[in-house]
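Quick entry between incubations.
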Amino acid sequence: MSAVQQPTVPVKSGAAGSAKFAGSDSRKYNYFDPKGRRATHYEDMTVDVQPDPKRYLLQDWIISFADGTPTYSENWTEAKSSDWHKYRSVDQEWERTHYQRQSTICGMIQNVVENGRRSGAPKRFDPAWVKILQDHLGAYKHAEFGLGTSTMQAQRYGYTQMINNAILTNSSYKIRFAQDLTLYLSEIGLDIGGFDENAGKAHWLQDPIWQGTRRAIETIGGATDFLEQYFAVNFVFEPLVGELFRSGFVMQAAASQNDFITPSVVSAAEGDYERNLANAVELFRMLVLDEAHGNHNRMLFKSWVEKHGSLALEAAHNLQPIWSQPRVKVAHFTEALELAKNRVRAIAAETDIDVRHVLEA
Amino acid sequence: MPDGISLTKITAQKGISIGEAAKRVADLGWTPSYVQEAMTFPTDYKIKKAPRDPMKQVLRSYFPMQEEKDNRVYGALDAALRGDMFRNVEPRWVEWMKLFLAIIPFPEISAARSMAMVARLAPGEELRTGFTMQMVDEFRHSTIQMNLKKWYMENYIDPAGFDITEAAFGRCYATTIGRQFAEGFVTGDAITSANIYLTVVAETAFTNTLFVAMPSEAARNGDYALPTVFLSVQSDESRHIGNGHSMLMSLINDPDNHQLIERDLRYAFWQNHAIVDAAIGVLIEYATTDRDKNKESYAELWHRWIYEDYYRTYMLPLEKYGIKIHHDDVSAAWDRMVKKNYVHKTAQFFSVGWPLNFWRIEAQTDKDFEWFEHKYPGWYAEFGDYWKWYAKLSKPGETIMTFNTETGYIYPHRCWSCMVPCLIREEIVCDEVDGKIYTYCSELCHWTHKTAFSAEYEGRSTPAMGRFSGRREWEDCYHGWDLADAITDLGFVRDDGKTLVPQPHLRFDDKEMWTLDHVRGHTLGSPLRTIRAMTPEARETHLAEYRKGFKINPLN
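Done. Structure below.
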């Protein structure tokens, strides 16, 4: 047997620059418009990986749900956009940066907890504070888990890879933090006699103080609009309940109860939230500023604020008794709530969404 | 230092066990009582038993572990550049990576999305952590693969094709099978897609050929980057296999589900075979320059990974739970691999349509012929002349194979189900479904469309099952177009506005490269439109002729 020999030009190297020919210098992904002058690494990793018939998906979606809904549908949210592909997450996360950040947080928490325990710190926590950690931080970890599972659900529905990945990392942060709290409480429980690690869940399920929060979380989980879930998590629940409890209570009160460990653990969630919030603000701002659909979206978001805001405010008010429980009282609920409302006002101002009807009610 | 003193001993303190940590983390969930979770992705399965988490890992150990794996991957990429890897890499291999890496990030991220579908369906919370980790893993896989592709683009001699990668993925006549694969993970019945098709079959069976066999071949071609990335990816798969099996065990517990499990295993196994073996078989056998006769062929790898590992140790044990396993399907797939030349016919199809691809495919040579004949006796008689023609016609200005009446090649029909054409011509099936004529590559693909993807299965209502949709026959999109216009519309033209991205050779010289002018004057057509336009009698005659196959004319 013999093949026809090709007249080949010997290739001495497969390296860039070893020959010059048409296209030999085309060394950038060239199928999308970067947000800035040059594409960021995040954009290169993310843009157009989830295809779209409006862009390059020549054959359209080729499998549908039984009712004819395609693999991805713009109708999975009431919000509308002239171009969903414009969105870029502010934190620019792709896998490497996500693992680096998550791993750093895990290491930070582990060091703080290990070193604190080694110095015998949990035994010196004020007893009334120990009960607060056991009952209320123990209850709150379930709220974080609820936010994580809601966003895990929501990351299936977005119309672009950029939106879905931002929601995915949000979920990853929330579920990690729920686990951080669970394991932290279990570990200090080893050092503190009589610590009941099951008490938190009992309070979550039964304590009237937490029922408003649970209702708010379950309402977010029950929403069928994925953007409503993402909105309610970051624009409503996090500032009015999550941050209120984390920053407005735990982080302020802990030091006075001889507890320097808990604020460090909880601070990770505040850092996470700043990034999740920035990503969410960018998305909802884009939708509100949409020339064709801005007004529709603004009205829609107002209705979401109304639905979830009233639940979150009720949840916040229900938590008020916790502020009275520490032996040394350094944080005041009314001040914390006002700060939380101001946070919502600031978010609303960034995104031009009317929240007065809920906050001033 | 006295004996017995170590840093670990000094710093050790009482902690909670891994099992206890996993148990407490699993207790984070609760049954809602104010508002029920929205059940947005339907399934016809009943899931009564909470699945167990076999891995028992928590995120605080997961994230540092993954970061460490990443550090090794990125360190290795830097080392490869310092070692001047691209000076010695085989361009034949890297060219095919333009196809492979265009396809794979979308299936990966689809797997992340599918975790939303199974996580909400599974009762109990134990496996939710497993699903969470898989979701983040898949985010890892998708973006780490995009990074590898960018790295090739920046450092390989010919970046064209990498530079248009995701746009090309959405349009190319070959990547269409990858889209069928990925959409299958996230569309239709949530358990069918996210559990059986994705984790129980694709990840458990076929990732071994994708992520283990392919890296070995990459290394043989001087590419040390792909093994670094993909073996790291594969190290996550054991967790996913555990998730899939655990969910399957909770489904299998209810005999009501057995009929659906049987249907879905059948569909998923066959379609994974049709798609993955077509793509990965071609990459392993035709993208390589290594013709060591002692190495395993794709067929031998398939026997090891799919037949021995998957069929014998994973599928067969399901029989003891009362699941009917279709042994004949596995035999039929094996026969297609070793007796009916499925992989070689796919390579022929990919290469015959080279102008509509976005990578270079060079002709197989004498050295390749010998290896193929050694591994697949009879290969030369069927494919030798084809590749000789291909080499001859690789010069700019020759009439390409599809439109060259001298070669004897006949363009195939597409399979409406797996999207690979009906390459084993004697197995073509043509039938009417819902009043329309379709063609299929095999009886099982016909069954998949007509019977499995339907609102009723063997008398049982299956309202959650997905449907095939869209413009599934690629050729239909450019029916009646001039080839040059189609290539322009696809965007497969280099930045000088005339030279094609794809080339039928590895000659990196403008003088040797094809331009739009070289391919103008040929009209594309849809085989499905043609067969639909025939009278029933003419169609039968056409199909009888098609089943006889074709013979490539000798080239001396």
